[in-house]
Structures are given as structure tokens and as C-alpha cells.
Amino acid sequence: MKTITYDTSVTIAAPREAVWTVLSEVAAWPEWHPAVTKVQALDGNSLSLGSRFVVHQPKLRAVTWGVSKLEKPRLFDWDARSPGLALVAEHTVHEESPRKSILTLRFSFHGIIGWITSKFYGSITKKYLVQEAAAIKQKVEASR
């Protein structure tokens, strides 16, 4: 089984905590994220290990994501699963200096049908990753 992964990084002129505050408020993403129209928090708005969020995006089915890894204020991963397919999205904030951070977003398709699913959804996945990174940068830097 081949894993297909897409990623993007952006430098943000702000401390890691400022980036993390925007990134970790998942329920607020539709306010600033052009590729997210609605987020339903199933276990409360707080980002915590095991918490689940239903994310609605244009041109895609709604997906329920479960937080599988959390190291505040550095990273969180979440995943979504269906028969033969696992989706994993990683969000990492690296502190380059006290006033500069690097945000890396990575999305992977795993499983028996992961490769074929990536062929249908790879281009939109790449587009949404770039949009998310740019939107976080704009939101964080505009609030400084």
C-alpha cells in the first residue's frame, strides 16, 4: 500500500503561540479559512486528544476528524477513516525565532484505496492546503 502525501509550509511573522491560537480554534475556521464552510464540534470546541470535528468543505463530502496527536502549542494531527482508506492531516508550528514561526501542513492518503482516492482528490487537497496556510498567515499577521 502506497501512501500519498501533500504538504506546504509558510513563514509567519509572529510567535508560535499566536499561530497556535488561530490554528487550534478549529470551530472558528469558517470565519477565516476560504476552504472551510462549516465546522461542527462533536465533543466541545476545545482541541483535545480524541476530540472530533465534522468539517465541511466545498466540493467535498463532510468528514469527521478525530484528534490523534496533540502537543500544544507545537502540533496536532487528526485522522478520518473509512473502509480501505485513512486520511491523516498534520499541523505543525515550528518556532524559528521569538517573532517568526513556520507552519507546515501535511495531508496523507493511506490504505488500500488511498492511492486511487489521491488521484481524484489530490489537486483539490493541494489547493486547500495552500489556501489554509495563506489564510492563517494573513489572519495571524493582521492581528499583530
Number of domains: 1
Order of helices and strands: EHHEEEEEEH
Largest sheet, spatial ordering of strands: 1-7-6-5-4-3-2
Number of strands: 7
Identify low-pLDDT runs: none
* Range of strand content: 35-45%
| Average predicted local confidence, pLDDT | 96
At the fold tier of CATH, the topology name is: Alpha-D-Glucose-1,6-Bisphosphate, Chain A, domain 4
Q: Do you know the CATH architecture?
A: 2-Layer Sandwich
What is the name of the CATH class? Alpha Beta
Structural class: alpha+beta
CATH superfamily: START domain
The backbone outline, from C-alpha atoms, is: globular
Provide a count of the helices.
3
Terminal residue distance: 44 Å
Largest sheet: 7 strands, antiparallel
User: What is the percent of helical residues?
Assistant: 25-40%
Notes on the structure:
- With 144 residues, the chain is an alpha+beta fold.
- It has a single domain (4-142), classed as START domain (Alpha-D-Glucose-1,6-Bisphosphate, Chain A, domain 4, 2-Layer Sandwich).
- 29% of the residues lie in helices and 41% in strands.
- The chain is built from three helices and seven strands, in the order E-H-H-E-E-E-E-E-E-H.
- It has helices at residues 16-24, 29-32, 114-142; strands spanning 4-12, 38-41, 52-56, 63-71, 75-82, 85-97, 100-110.
- A seven-stranded antiparallel beta sheet has the order 1-7-6-5-4-3-2, with helices on one face.
- Helix 1 (16-24) crosses helix 3.
- The protein is globular and about 45 Å long.
